[in-house]
Structures are given as structure tokens and as C-alpha cells.
Amino acid sequence: MTQRDEPLPDRSLLLRTLRSVLALISADAVACDVTAAYVWGVDLLPSGARVTRSRLHVAVPRGVAGVGRQAVIPHREPLPASDRDLVDGVQVTTPVRTACDVAARAPSLFVATARLDAFLTRGLVGRTELRGAAHRPRPRVQRDRLLSALRLCSERSQSPAETFLRVLLDLARLPAATPQCPVPTIEGTFRADLGWPEYRVALEYDSAEHHSDRPALLRDEWRYAVMRDQGWRVLSVRAHDLRRCPDGLLSRIAGELTARGWRCTEEQRRHVQRTIRRYGRRSPPLFE
Description:
288 residues, alpha/beta
């Protein structure tokens, strides 16, 4: 299921909970971070977690004491009126402020970029809005992560795994891939998850859920065969490749691109090899 097709989380119970919690804290308290993201339809909670059983992220005005930390994660930071919105009577950070906050505080560049992609693909924010909000004062590590994620994010990303692939390629300094790459065939134009039209190389991410659906698997096998008949090289990528064997995955992609005509400088070649060796020792922090 793509990000665009995912059902929006039911926020009604969360909003009822927030009304009572925020009223107890302060009339000026604002739901923020991953709690606000959930309100806007972006579920960033760990798999299986329930939002109303998770600690709520709340921007608490200075001078307000006695906030119960067991139920609330307080963020003591100023929030101008322009960064606030009202949803069913609940004060929530705006989509653009929320997107920037959750990306800046993400545990890795991979996760930060996936979070921005989630907001972009749902049409909650635009790239211009993000650029305008990204330069507000933040701790340097957070600011640098947000700016790097902003450079890499894409409104065409269809899943976090595609985002992780795109960031992995960028960090290795391999050629930039096109998200939802068009592949013209005699059966019509297909869309590869990622691709390089100039080299006719496509990457397709096959999730475990996808492989449990035999009709979908057969459709993709047919689609890949048609693409190969048009001279495309189709590389299937699975979660194991990303989680456990990113070095082997990068080697395979670099080899295919080179075989199809990609030429890199000696500096690029050394950087690719260093990245492959580094990920051979330790996999990148893809997942939260």
C-alpha cells in the first residue's frame, strides 16, 4: 500500500483526549511533534502503538509547572501564532511546523526524509513552505538534519522504503534516481519505484506483504518481464537488502549502472567503495 493510499488514522479519540489534557496544562498549550502529525493524518508511531496510549507531545508555555511527565512529553519552546492551528477546538502546530519538527528530531537522515515525504505526498505541505520554515533557530544537529532531508525529500515517494533507497543512493554518491520513473512499453507506460531512464535500470521494492499476495506477485512478474523486453534491467529490492545487506545492494546497483554506461570520477568511485565497506561493517539506521 502506498503512502497516498493509506487510510487516515482515526483522530477523534485523540482529539477528545487532547482537549482534556491541554485544558489541564494551560489554555496556551499546543499539541506538537508526532502527536500533531497524527492529527494531520501522518502516523509516525512505532508499529502497533496506539496513539491514545502513547505519551502526548505538548508545547508547554514557559512558567507552567507540574506537567505530568508520565502522560505528556513537554516541549518548552515558543510557538508564534503563525505556527498554530485549531482542529475541532484543539490547538495543534500547523502542518509545516509539524513536518519540520518531526524531521529535525528524527533519529537519522533516512527517517527525517521519510517523514517529510509523508507530509508532501499527502499534500499537507509544499516544498516552498518547508524551505521557508526550515531556517528557524534550532540546535545545529537538528537544523543540519532538516536541511539535508529537505534537499532529498520528494512528493512522488510512495513508501518509506523507497525514501530509504533514495537516501542510500545519495549518501553513496550514485546517480540520482527518478521516483516513480516512467517506463514506456508496448503494454503502456509503467512506473518503476525508482529508475534511471538514461541507463534503463529500474529498482522495484517488494515488501513482505506484497509477496504474500500471489495475484499481485504474478502481475509484477509480468510487468517486469515486459520492461525487460524493452531493454530495461529490473532489480528487485526487499526489506532484507535494506536492513541487512545494504553493502551488497549498493554493489549490485553500482555494477548495473556501470554496465549500462555510467562513468564516474575516481573520487566518486572511491567514495562508493568506502560507503559499501562502511555499510558492510554496520547497516545504516533506516528504521526507528
